Amino acid sequence: MEPLVLFNALTTRLLFALHSLVGVWRVTEVKKEPQFWLLALLQLPLALETVLTLKKRRGRGYPGFSPAIFFYLTSIMPSLWLLEMHHETQYCSNQEQNTSSKEDFNQNHIMNNYNTGTEALLETAKHFVNNLSTVCEEVWTLGLHQTFLLLLIIGRWLLPIGGEITRDQLSQLLLIFVGTAADILEFTSETLEERNVRNSPELVYAILTIWSWSMLQFPLDLAVQHFVCPSSVTSKGFISLFFCQYSADLWNIGISLFIQDGPFLVLRLILMIYFKVINQMLVFFAAKNFLVVILQLYRLTVLVLDVQASLRKQQQSLKGEDSLLSQPGECGLSLRIRDDEVTEDASIPLEDSQGTGEIC
């Protein structure tokens, strides 16, 4: 089991590093400036984290937070920012270019049949890389966004479980990530494809900022972890019991209101109201974000009322126990004696050992 854990930990981080390098390579191809290869230095924290995790924790993760995913975000997101800000459209090759490219590939494939296997493999790889360079910019950027989100989900699945998270909680987290990734991808592709948005650098900066902010939820695991509240928490008041009993629900509500649906709704309303950017999909997803925000606020209200009701019941039970303890005892002992069918209640007074009086 231990070798499998080490293999999964190392393989996942290598996939992260490879994808980041592809993003850096694409930036250098678009910008035509080799100094952008310096973006590859952003992978140094991921490499350091890999060494420390493999050595200190034997590949296991950390409780509540995934440094590998966080450093992967910091290494790939600058490349995606630069690609999105490079809005000069690189047009796709026309049909004649595609046809000639296919003919060249077929000719090379025929010529490679006469060469050795190694030379044929190298020629095929070289031709494949050349074809990748001719793919239009919009397709490349969208493909990097899609593979980025898919790799986040797959990588979180492959990373060894660490801390207190269980496999059941991990499956819940992955399902949450799938829905979150789809919403984030729709947010960026739907807003940035508008011509009015592309003509305004401030809007592009705002969209990318909110997109970057929404990505910070992926390294967190607290949205599915449930903690057992000790009995002493109930005596500390409403706030302590509320945050302890519903910590996972509060994380979900907070992420939705302040990291994803809330900021998405605000930006979409600004686009529709102030910049007059209105289309069917924008209106639909704005309505969807509005419903999610309202439902999360309703859920928060339900949780508050539930904690108040539980505290009220606890206080009533404590008052009942205090009233029973404060009642004076009866100065007599009631005995019920049964003689055939006759039952009598006799109260026999008791005296103390000194004969001083009754015990009450």
Automatic annotation (TrEMBL):
KW DNA-binding (keyword) present: no
Keyword tags: Membrane, Transmembrane, Transmembrane helix
A Pfam family: Tmem26
Keyword Transmembrane in record: yes
Bilayer-crossing regions: 61-81, 250-275
InterPro entries documented for this protein: Transmembrane_26
Protein name (record): Transmembrane protein 26
Native organism: Sarcophilus harrisii
